[in-house]
Description:
This protein is of the alpha/beta class.
Amino acid sequence: xxxxxxxxxxxxxxxxxxxxxxxxxxxxxxxxxxxxxxxxxxxxxxxxxxxxxxxxxxxxxxxxxxxxxxxxxxxxxxxxxxxxxxxxxxxxxxxxxxxxxxxxxxxxxxxxxxxxxxxxxxxxxxxxxxxxxxxxxxxxxxxxxxxxxxxxxxxxxxxxxxxxxxxxxxxxxxxxxxxxxxxxxxxxxxxxxxxxxxxxxxxxxxxxxxxxxxxxxxxxxxxxxxxxxxxxxxxxxxxxxxxxxxxxxxxxxxxxxxxxxxxxxxxxxxxxxxxxxxxxxxxxxxxxxxxxxxxxxxxxxxxxxxxxxxxxxxxxxxxxxxxxxxxxxxxxxxxxxxxxxxxxxxxxxxxxxxxxxxxxxxxxxxx
Length: 367
Ligand SMILES: *[C@@H]1O[C@H](CO)[C@@H](O)[C@H](O)[C@H]1NC(C)=O
Ligand SMILES: *[C@@H]1O[C@H](CO)[C@@H](O)[C@H](O)[C@H]1NC(C)=O
């Protein structure tokens, strides 16, 4: 009995301490978790039988490898740029088999193009990972890191992580407004639909809190009526489509209200609202000020505004992606993504509520 105690204290315990010291630098670096739709999917859909995918050229044309990765961008997407700003490597898609061992400690991306707040959003894309399934994978993830660093460290890694969730756009463009007289538009007026979405989003955010999320960046929806795809299908003369803009104008303020309620209910700034509408609208209404030649025409696509159909090898492709705000009919170019993340980092309360990410990062580094 006493000799085994001796073995533990003089040999095993120091050994464990040394090992912990070796492992801990990676554990201490802040992890990053991503949930949501195509704006933040880094390639999960490559592994699924779905039409919502970005794994063939010219997607990725400006990515470091110049190959498609599943990101809906010419180069980096929003999560990549956030990772860059918090000083970590990009998080891998959860379904990527390379995501194992120490790599898990960097975090993971669970996002899947085509999904929405509602389970019936994106049904036309067949096999996609809906938000509650993304959360099941997150639980799975937590079991896996518990095996590597133990229960306490795993819990800490999750609680101290930065989390990004981007949802809502598809509930409008790929559900309510997808076809005239869609089931949801017959069921709900637009304001009632927005209230319904918010009531479902509340459950989603509370679940994320239950699963350990403590710093969660929640992006509202962008100016959906201004994307090249909607301009091509619905705009009269290149103006943003009013009823779709109206959707974002109703939804976003309700989301900010929800976030304020949740934070006061939880007694802490768990959720941070990022105003994706204003950040995008800045360069959509004045593209030249930001070095873009246009915010109406997508770089890659065909038809009016290059906004019809998908971006493929056969599409028009602009030679210089840095001067286009939109890469394809729905998604910003890497350069536009950089402008958006810049506002996440340092934006005033017009963009970030209750505070921006640099303030959050500074607060968290002091505790
Ligand atoms: C969506 O699906 C999840 C489980 O997959 C379920 O828990 C949830 O209640 C569903 N939401 C609605 C509004 O039906
Ligand atoms: C946002 O970030 C900037 C630069 O770090 C800071 O000066 C500013 O006070 C912050 N604003 C808010 C509202 O948090």
